[in-house]
Amino acid sequence: MLNQISPRPAAGDFCRACSAKTCGFCGAFDRDTLAEFSSHAHRVHFRRDAEIAGQGEASEQIGVIASGLVRIVNVTESGDEFILQVLHRGQLVGAPLQAVSEFSYEAATDTTICWVPRGAWEAFLQDRPLHFQAYVATMASQMQDLQRGVVRLRGRDTAQRVAFWLLEQAPNAHGGDRARIRIALSRRDLASLLDMTAETLCRALHRLHKRHVLRLVSPDLVEIDDLAKLRRAAKCQEEAVSAALAQTDTPTPRTQWNATAADRLNGTKPVEMPKRPAARRPGTKAAPDRAGVRSA
């Protein structure tokens, strides 16, 4: 499949019209810096599923995602493919510090990349500290995304992984807010990212639908009526704490275990200190207890 290469416009033209200039690597630059960057770059459009950079190939240029999604894929010696991460607009494609690409980069959707030759890229980063700081911040953000992906999988079943991933697609919504989430990834890609098969992903989505956590409007559109419920389905700790706090409305008798919400959540019981008996004067009788039985 051929990729379409855009003719190089005047310096800064495609940067001024690019939505990626407000986020990621280019989001740290002013107009003059964007013009300087675009003077070294050329744009390439990739159709969905096209290979952008192959695993084991020489990394001769670095790219900034102008639009679309890019999947990072690891191909094992047996030929199995696993999606490690999905990159978004403003993030970097390629291996800036490596001569050979350790992974494969593929277009998860129709994608546009701004490519810069490696020599021009290194000179651009060395030109001013702001350029290098933007590069470090972008790579740190991509590393954090990868780490969150590990957290997403650890200790969660398939439905909880799907719920957690959906939460990440609506980062600005809170509490009982509603959200409409359009799934740009294919079912196969999303299943691989969440370490499950496409069939298991479909079962997990229908499971969440039956539990009224979400509504499947169409194969690529999900509606969430209550994000707090979705957080509980995703096994988020803060929602478990809120649920425990809600159970403390009814006062507990003093003779019972008066546990706090955190104790209930963790399954622990506070230590009860023994009470010191009241002293009696010689020749007096003990008062009867509440049950009418005298103490010995």
TrEMBL record:
Pfam family, one: cNMP_binding
Keyword Transcription regulation: yes
Keywords: DNA-binding, Transcription, Transcription regulation
Domain HTH crp-type, chain residue ranges per copy: 156-228
Any one GO CC term of the record: cytosol
Region called Disordered, residue ranges: 244-296
Residue span, Cyclic nucleotide-binding domain: 25-94
Top-level taxon of origin: Bacteria
Keyword Transcription regulation part of the UniProt annotation: yes
Polar residues bias: start-end ranges: 245-259
Biased segments, Basic and acidic residues type: 287-296
GO molecular function terms attached to this record: DNA binding; DNA-binding transcription factor activity
InterPro entries: cNMP-bd_dom, cNMP-bd_dom_sf, Env_Response_Regulators, HTH_CRP, RmlC-like_jellyroll, WH-like_DNA-bd_sf, WH_DNA-bd_sf
CDD domains: CAP_ED
Organism: Thioclava atlantica
Stated name of the protein: Transcriptional regulator protein, Fnr/CRP family
